[in-house]
Amino acid sequence: MSRIAVIGTGYVGLTTGACLAHLGHTVVCADIDESKVADLRAGRIPIVENGL
């Protein structure tokens, strides 16, 4: 499997990263917004997407 970096954790980036990780790829998502990164690390998802 591939190692993939996704820049931006908005609706498109976060969903894309989650889907690629679900397929077995190693994914790192990066964002300039430190509070958004902190929320994601704490398990708080900022968007509503079934199964995410």
Topology, element by element:
Layout lengths: L2 E5 L3 H12 L3 E5 L3 H8 L11
Parallel strand pairs: 1-2
Helix content: 25-40%
The average pLDDT value, as a whole number, equals 93
Calculate the terminal CA-CA distance, rounded to whole Å: 21 Å
Structural class of the helices, strands and pairings? alpha+beta
- SS field, number of helical segments: 2
Strand line-up in the sheet with most strands: 1-2
Secondary-structure element series: EHEH
Shape from CA axes? globular
Tally of distinct domains: 1
Q: Radius of gyration in whole Å, from Cα? A: 11 Å
Percent of residues in beta strands? Answer: 15-25%
The total strand number stands at 2
Kindly describe this structure:
A two-stranded parallel sheet has the order 1-2. The two termini are 21 Å apart. It has helices at residues 11-22, 34-41; strands at 3-7, 26-30. The protein is built from 2 helices and 2 strands, in the order βαβα. It has one domain (3-41). The protein has 52 residues and is α+β, with helices and mostly antiparallel strands. The mean pLDDT is 93.
